[in-house]
Write a structure and sequence with these properties.
mainly alpha; 6 helices; 0% strand
Amino acid sequence: MAQRLTAEQWTIVRKGYETDPRLSFADLASQFGVSKQAIHARAKAESWQRVISLAELNARARTRADHLVDGRLDAKSLASSREAGVDSATEQRAAVLARHRKEADGPRRMVYQAIQTSDIEKAKLAKTVAESLKIVHELERKAWGLDVGENTDRDSVIVIERT
């Protein structure tokens, strides 16, 4: 049997839904031990709306990552409780993007050193490290939804649903 949530718990559920575009009613239901229908009914009754799309969240994260990498801090901050959730999600994604940018410098330095010293083994190691980082970064980008809403170089896929 599903449990009843307190007003405070419902506030947390609503904040999660409105500020994290990846969370569905089903995700929240399993997280809080209530039915998906209960969350949907509450959302409809209270007119819950997503504050931000995943694409917009990622755009903000890129901007924030630019500031983190450049050492500049973004002075615009928390205007409301809703924005606090968006800022938190943006901050997490920005940290991932900033780390990816910093990690890309490692293989580059290894390649430059290999060129200067004519060390073929170091060049091979740099290639292996770069390929490994690429795989890890792609997995993280997928896990965080960082590539959603971007134009990619992949071929288009057409889905035809027949009933």
